[in-house]
Design goal:
By secondary structure, the chain is mainly alpha-helical. It contains twelve helices and two strands; from the N terminus they run H-H-H-H-H-H-H-H-E-E-H-H-H-H. The protein has two domains: 149 residues, no CATH class; 154 residues, Lysozyme. 50% of the residues lie in helices and 6% in strands. Helix 2 runs antiparallel to helix 12.
Length: 330
């Protein structure tokens, strides 16, 4: 199976043969392979983002069944390839990073390159590929979705004949990258205050806010800057923003209107989140044992941060996606 070029989709998913071919090209000509590597990474990452978005969307009673889930996963894989590599997307950012890493590397020539192109790197032998290219060539994992038919509306506006826009699959990876780059300084400051890794904090902000697109709005339509979904309880003396939210009662999703804290800036939002983790007894053990994405995610669920019974798995997955994108962005 040939790996798709930018903007085209000749296959429904990536397989090991296409990645092996790309590894071979990288061994012969790393600079020439950087664009294809960037496009494949964007495609894989977009699939992960789509799955996270679908997982965060409540299912109707009964769901779509195994057939509907399989179809949704196949559609996500196809769409992610169809739109990967379009101008202004994540692939452009990754390619720039790869080019920067490899700008001083000469193109491989001669028989040595041909020999290494037929061998997969092993744990015992040093690899001939650059670290940046190795990072962007993970073994493909089939992506299946647990989404229901109602969640297909997430991508209902995406069709192959339409140009890419800020709401299409092509921009999802770019949106996530922009979110990380914009919020990382705030997350690092929150890490300094709490000891919780900045990537974990970014992952939770991404999950709670849909990568910054689902924040509660103030009554006048302005942004509440509430990336963490922190509600305005009786103890909160600041401004509030009212919004619809999904809570789980006896395992079932229920839509209700709730009041959320409103902040003047993202700096204030991250600072309030850091104070909550540091000062609240319910999160003390979470902060002290946040050694991995999974440990942190399960700790937050046990502490009662959210009512969604699948919150821990969704949070851990989003944190891991955040870590992968941070590595890609350098």
């Amino acid at each position: 199976m040939r790996s798709p070029d930018a903007g085209t989709s000749g296959t429904a998913s990536l397989d090991s043969r296409s990645l092996d071919a790309l590894r071979g090209q990288a061994a012969r000509d790393p600079k020439g392979a950087s664009r294809k590597a960037a496009v494949q990474f964007e495609s894989l990452f977009t699939q992960m983002v789509l799955k996270s978005m679908r997982d965060a969307t409540p299912k109707p009673e009964g769901g779509a069944g195994p057939g509907g889930d399989a179809f949704t996963g196949m559609m996500d894989a196809q769409l992610s390839q169809q739109f990967a590599g379009r101008p202004g997307g994540l692939a452009d950012m990754i390619e720039k990073q790869l080019t920067r890493h490899m700008q001083n590397l000469p193109a491989a020539t001669g028989g040595a390159a041909a020999a290494t192109s037929t061998q997969a790197p092993s744990a015992q032998a040093p690899s001939t590929q650059t670290p940046a290219l190795q990072m962007t060539l993970p073994n493909p994992t089939p992506v299946s979705s647990s989404a229901s038919r109602s969640t297909v509306s997430i991508t209902s506006s995406i069709t192959p004949h339409r140009p890419a826009s800020t709401t299409t699959t092509a921009s999802l990876g770019s949106r996530a990258a922009q979110f990380i780059e914009r919020m990382l300084p705030h997350a690092k400051e929150a890490e300094r205050q709490t000891g919780v890794p900045a990537s974990f904090i970014l992952g939770q902000a991404a999950l709670e806010s849909g990568w910054g697109k689902s924040e509660a709005r103030n009554a006048n339509g302005t942004n509440s800057h509430n990336l963490f979904g922190v509600k305005a309880t009786a103890a909160w003396q600041g401004a509030q923003a009212t919004s619809m939210t999904t809570e789980y009662q006896q395992g079932q999703p229920v839509r209700e209107r709730a009041a959320f804290r409103s902040y003047e800036s993202y700096t204030d939002a991250f600072a309030d989140y850091a104070r909550m983790l540091s000062n609240s007894p319910r999160y003390r053990n979470v902060v002290q044992t946040a050694s991995s994405a999974e440990t942190f995610a399960h700790g937050m669920q046990r502490a009662g941060y959210a009512t969604d019974p699948q919150y821990a798995s969704k949070l851990a997955r989003t944190i891991n996606h955040t870590l992968a994108l941070q590595r890609a962005l350098g």
